[in-house]
């Protein structure tokens, strides 16, 4: 068997101090100088060079709530998005298990963008050929970056909310024995990475902020990997409420809605296999146009932000930090803070999966659809979308009888792909999720041993 190109353990991704110092230093140097150096595998972490979680506490002049809204920043990951974490985790587990063999298998990456970018990037570093299967109506920047890292594109009809077609195409390509899928919607390395690495990083992120606890965690599911962080947060802070956000235009979890929308990376018309329904307390709907308008405010509305009382330095710093799904998460966090009536000691944590660098075309599209996008329009959007955000479209899923709606959706989505009702029913037991999570210690030791 060809040599497996190893990277970090889960433990090292959570805490880079556990790496050999010379490896960490070499990786940090490569992150700035050569993103295609394989040592960048050791930069897959939420931590910066000072071992601090990359984050921003949003100005209250923007959010209009007393609670502290803490946004963890995915921009600093190699390839520019935290999705590189689950892509690596899924690939390395497959290597350790002998399911994926270097030089023999081609990697498939079903995605709507960031995971596909992550798959292309990781396969470049680890020496695999890759094919990314995704809808044909995503932002051009995503396609360009995937191809830049060397993967081939296999495009399916439709847009963001037609991801089911990418899954069907992936299953068809898997019939060829040389293909191995990093199936983010159904394989549990995605869950393990986010529960362990993102969840524990979120717990660290609030130290010294407010009461040092997390009152709510908000995440918009695409694959529902990121929201797994809530499982670990709840273990530390049982009072924490977990909110899944989805587009108002594609409200599949909330009420079975299945429309088209503009928020890339989320709202995929399904309840994914790895979504732990047991820990989801609320589902919140966010209007897609507000996320794009909000992105315009943050990126182009420096004057509007200054008028709100935000320092110019802060406004300039925020310009490049978010994409549409990040704005969606911020709006959901504001809604949750208002709905729960949180105060100045309370913290709401959310995620910016990526940053603005892959969404210029989204702003260009918005500018083309409005007759006026001058400062006075952007000022009004800042007031209406951020400060004027209401606590509406919040659905309470804490009762068991209401959760059954989500279990039924999952059954509808996944029995067609060969999963049995008995297997899906086993997910109603917390022990199922603890069993999947416990495998982290096995993979930590196996990676170290084989490396």
UniProtKB/TrEMBL annotation:
Cofactor dependency: pyridoxal 5'-phosphate
Tryptophan synthase beta chain-like PALP domain span: 78-354
Signal peptide segment: none
Pfam family, one: PALP
Record keywords, A-Z: Pyridoxal phosphate
Protein name, UniProt field: Pyridoxal-phosphate dependent enzyme
Species name: Clostridium rhizosphaerae
């Amino acid at each position: 068997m060809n040599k497996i190109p190893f990277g970090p353990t889960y433990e090292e991704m959570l805490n880079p101090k556990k790496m050999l110092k010379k490896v960490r230093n070499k990786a940090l140097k490569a992150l700035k100088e050569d993103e295609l150096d394989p040592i960048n595998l050791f930069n897959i972490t939420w931590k910066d060079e000072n071992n601090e979680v990359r984050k921003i506490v949003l100005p209250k002049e923007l959010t209009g709530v007393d609670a502290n809204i803490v946004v963890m920043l995915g921009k600093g990951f190699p390839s520019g998005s935290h999705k590189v974490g689950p892509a690596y985790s899924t690939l390395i587990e497959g290597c350790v298990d002998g399911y994926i063999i270097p030089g023999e298998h081609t990697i498939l990456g079903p995605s709507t963008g960031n995971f596909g970018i992550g798959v292309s990037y990781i396969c470049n570093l680890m020496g695999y050929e890759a094919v990314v299967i995704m809808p044909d109506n995503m932002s051009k920047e995503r396609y360009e970056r995937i191809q830049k890292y060397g993967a081939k594109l296999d495009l399916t009809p439709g847009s963001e909310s037609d991801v089911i077609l990418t899954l069907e195409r992936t299953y068809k390509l898997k019939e060829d024995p040389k293909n191995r899928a990093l199936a983010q919607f159904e394989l549990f390395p995605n869950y393990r990475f986010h529960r362990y690495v993102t969840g524990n990083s979120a717990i660290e992120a609030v130290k010294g902020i407010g009461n040092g606890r997390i009152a709510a965690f908000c995440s918009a599911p695409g694959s529902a990997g990121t929201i797994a962080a809530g499982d670990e947060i709840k273990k530390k802070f049982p009072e924490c409420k977990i909110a899944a956000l989805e587009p108002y235009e594609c409200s599949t979890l909330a009420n079975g809605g299945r429309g088209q929308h503009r928020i890339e990376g989320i709202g995929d018309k399904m309840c994914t296999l790895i979504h732990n329904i047991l820990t989801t307390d609320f589902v919140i709907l966010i209007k897609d146009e507000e996320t794009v308008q909000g992105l315009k405010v943050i990126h182009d509305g420096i004057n509007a932000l200054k008028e709100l009382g935000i320092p110019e330095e802060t406004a300039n710093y925020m310009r490049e930090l978010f994409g549409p799904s990040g704005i969606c998460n911020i709006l959901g966090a504001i809604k949750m803070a208002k709905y729960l009536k949180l105060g100045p000691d309370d913290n709401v944590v959310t995620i910016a999966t990526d940053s603005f660098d892959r969404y210029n075309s989204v702003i260009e599209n918005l500018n083309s659809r409005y007759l006026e996008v001058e400062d006075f329009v952007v000022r009004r959007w800042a007031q209406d979308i951020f400060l004027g955000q209401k606590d509406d479209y919040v659905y309470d899923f804490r009762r068991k009888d209401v959760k059954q709606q989500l279990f039924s959706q999952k059954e509808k989505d996944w029995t067609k792909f060969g999963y049995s009702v008995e297997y899906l029913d086993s997910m109603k037991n917390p022990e199922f999720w603890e069993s999947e999570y416990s495998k982290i210690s096995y993979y930590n030791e196996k990676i170290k041993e084989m490396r």
